Amino acid sequence: MKNYSRDFKLFLKKQASLKVRTIVFPEGNNLKIIKSVSICSKLKISKCILLGDSSYIKNMAVQNNIVLNDNILIINPDSIRKNYVDDLFKLRKNKDIFNRDQALNKLNDNVILSIMMLYLNDVDGVVAGITRPTAEIIRPTFQIIQNGCKDPFVSSVFLMLFLDKVLVYGDCAINRYPNSTELAKIAIQSANTASSVGIFPSVAMLSYSTGSSSSGASVDRISHSLEIIKKIKPELLVDGPIQYDAAISKEIANIKLPESQVAGQATVLIFPDLNSGNITYKAVQQTAKITSIGPILQGLKKPVNDLSRGASVDDVVYTTAMTVIQSF
């Protein structure tokens, strides 16, 4: 029997190793990060920069039998903060920074430092968040990477690696109550992410209702988002509103929505709000004991990805691989 989870991981590793990219990890003192970086380097997924205390990191590596090879660079963040003061000051002048001392103070946060490294092309991507809440990763990313962007809208997906399939869940981390236009953007961004990793996007706009079985403001929002998607990207295979079971089960789809080209074979599942999306991905991940890669951020000018604080080493490794792929 084909193992889709294993095959998809192999695919990500192969794709990430096609080009040499450097990813920075601002939480370099974290043991899971040290273990993950060792694996990424061994598998040639990326070159890695750990921001942290060199002596501490090397001692942790020795104590835990972790190999840190030549593709892993450990940088004391205090030694490089001043290199980014002028650029951060210019970027955020008269917004939330009014002098260079304030800029330097902001750069005492290794997450902001790493994002500035990405902004100035010193690295190709950032993977962070294993010790930080999502807001502390997203906020500086918006302020720095999306600064001046005409359409700064950002969403996220999780890649859910089941034994018999790989599904894309969006948006489970960023947008709390997306309106119809935002839902349409989430669907299109998620479909593009699916395509980038070899998954044919068949998009289901999820709801508590399937087709015309019910009505109400939340169902109308889904229906309106579908109209917007079809105007922006008419070639995209998408349907909704549709319930989760009808989206992934051919048997149930034949009963509830037999004429749909998406029902029963959806690969991209768009949740109506953050509540439903976040609860579902965590419930599925923990109950089915599967690997979930993400949240993978979409719509950014340069790749920054936010780790769940409960992320495993496996999650970190494959989130890093996705970050490399996004940098191509």
Would you mind describing this structure in some detail?
- There is one protein chain.
- This protein has helices spanning 4-16, 31-42, 54-63, 85-92, 100-106, 110-119, 134-144, 180-196, 217-232, 244-248, 250-256, 274-288, 313-326, and strands at 22-25, 47-51, 72-75, 125-128, 155-161, 166-170, 202-206, 237-242, 268-270, 291-298, 304-306.
- With 328 residues, the chain is an alpha/beta fold.
- The protein folds into two domains: 4-153 and 299-326, Rossmann fold (3-Layer(aba) Sandwich), CATH 3.40.50; 155-286, Rossmann fold.
- The strands form two sheets. The chain has a six-stranded mixed β-sheet, sandwiched between helices.
- The model has no long low-confidence stretch (mean pLDDT 93).
Can you tag this structure with a few keywords?
328 residues, alpha/beta, Rossmann fold, 2 domains, six-stranded mixed sheet, five-stranded parallel sheet, 44% helix, P_AcTrfase_dom1, P_AcTrfase, P_AcTrfase_dom2, Phosphate acetyltransferase, EC 2.3.1.8
